[in-house]
Amino acid sequence: MLAIHTKTGPFAAGWVAYCLEKGIPFKEVDCFSPNIVEEVSDCKALLWHWSHNDFAATIFARQLIASVQAMGLVVFPSIETCWHFDDKVGQKYLLEAVHAPFIPTSVFYDPSTALDWLKTAKMPLVWKLRGGAGSRNVHLVKTKRRARKIIQKSFQSGWHTSRLFTLSEKLRLARAKPSVKNIAGIMRGIGRVIVPHQAYRYQLPEKGYVYFQDYIPDNYYDIRIIVIGQRAFGIKRMVRDGDFRASGSGKIIYDKNQIPKQCIELAFETASQISSQSCAFDFVQIGGTWKIVELSYGFSLQGYLLCPGYWRSDLSWVPGKFRPEEFIIRDLLEECDYNT
Fold first, then answer.
1. What is the biggest distance separating any 2 CA atoms in the chain, rounded to whole angstroms?
2. What is the pTM of this model?
């Protein structure tokens, strides 16, 4: 029997539908239950697509997954897949450890070391907090004066994610694509500024470290490749108007001929090296070579509905529509030695 967390997350509906279609026994569980370990003890596997936006999940998801794996269950995401999720600091060390083609990144844990390094650092730099998606908490730092102020604040009062970011994003989308849906999003964004979401109410300041990544100029897009098992699919994301960031721009190209072969190969290789069941890689180009900016096990299903097909690990192309959540559960069932 499979256990599927159905309280939150868009992937669960696809997993439930697949089980019903194939006659696979499963039960719905709530991973937030105080008795969740006991509730999954009679199961072979647990599926829970938890999000970085779910503040409660970020408190204990990794610990629960590691514990359930210790019970002998197959879990999606496995601890190998998600321990570095929404943690750019963790990703730095992981990608360096497996010698992946990673953009040069420096992290410091005391201000004096950071300030000494800054004296010879080449500007501009990209400053990031360890968490955040859709270009949240990512800024271009053009001067050393600004970088020094960032370093000082990072080891003093620290940083809180601005509640205005979400509202500004909704305003940007509404200007680019006026619609009833996007206008309604603005109203919700205003409401969240007035009444903060749980994640903001409980948020502690980010401090005690500072993270800088080399700025790669003249990139007008990035390439996102998602690897699930022995399959990969990708999109080309154009940067925002007047910006250097592509994540969250909403400007997506789905043409498979615009996805570089090198990115696909690197994504398959790196996913295998880090033992990831599912991983989204963001690539930018440096002098004809593709480098990883960051990675994430989680991704939005909606953004990939228009993909015209996917690649197998031998780089052969499989045309046609597909469901990423189905790839995930099929791989998990295979790992459980379950024959559908």
1. 63
2. 0.87
